[in-house]
Design a protein that fits this description.
Order of helices and strands: HHHHHHEEHH
Distance between the termini: 47 Å
Number of strands: 2
Radius of gyration: 24 Å
Oligomer: single chain
Strand content: under 5%
Helix content: over 70%
Shape: flat
Number of domains: 2
Largest sheet: 2 strands, antiparallel
Strand order of the largest sheet: 1-2
Length: 214
């Protein structure tokens, strides 16, 4: 980080600390109505938004996206308590990792915790109303989609092959969970056939001779 950017970082965080300190001081002196327990939620939300804005302004410290999104989500949960609190908090964490993945393809790994947390957020939101069986199926389908996304995103100019295997396995478990195991006798042969076809095609592409050079 150069001197100018470091100076901007110090100024930004100094301003954030001053703003939070002034707000808390006015609360202590009674200059504005006391917010009671909501003050904690407001402080968490402001701190989270400050972390998110700091990355947008400075474009450094990608981890601030995770911390900021998590704090903001926790602040919202405190300010608006309810049955959806767990889902909002998990979604906040997942969103932070998703934002990290968007900062650069070299951080492709962030897609895995992002997909996991967002899937858990969906389960926390609807799990009680759909039952354990379908909630388990959603978990496997969400994780399968997460690894499936990794299988189609180019990293350093080429598509990674390994995410296909966990994606297929998790998809199979999702189908088995959703059907109560009734489809097992048909599903596993199809999975084996699909994996075999994939391996044959992949090996054929690697062993194919290069075309003529003109």
């Amino acid at each position: 980080m150069d001197v100018e950017r470091r100076s901007r970082t110090v100024v930004l965080w100094g301003a954030v600390l001053i703003a939070v300190g002034v707000f808390m001081l006015t609360q202590t002196l009674g200059l504005i109505p006391s917010l009671g327990g909501d003050l904690v939620g407001i402080v968490f939300t402001i701190a989270g938004l400050a972390l998110l804005i700091s990355y947008l302004v400075l474009r450094t410290h990608w981890w601030t996206l995770i911390a900021g999104s998590t704090l903001a989500g926790l602040g919202v949960v405190i300010l608006f308590p309810g049955d959806a609190g767990g889902a909002i908090f998990l979604a906040g964490i997942g969103l932070g990792f998703a934002l990290v993945a968007l900062t650069g393809i070299q951080r492709w790994w962030a897609i895995i915790p992002a997909g996991t947390m967002l899937t858990l957020a969906v389960i926390a939101l609807v799990g009680n109303s759909i039952g354990g069986t379908l909630a388990g199926a959603i978990l496997f389908f969400g994780l399968a989609a997460t690894f499936g996304m990794l299988a189609v995103i180019p990293v350093d100019g080429h598509v990674m092959g390994w995410p296909v295997y966990p994606a297929i396995g998790l998809l199979a478990f999702g189908v088995l969970t959703a059907t109560g195991g009734a489809a097992a006798s048909f599903l596993w042969p199809l999975v084996l056939i699909a994996v075999g076809i994939f391996l044959v095609i992949r090996a054929s592409k690697k062993s194919a001779p290069p075309g003529p050079v003109h």
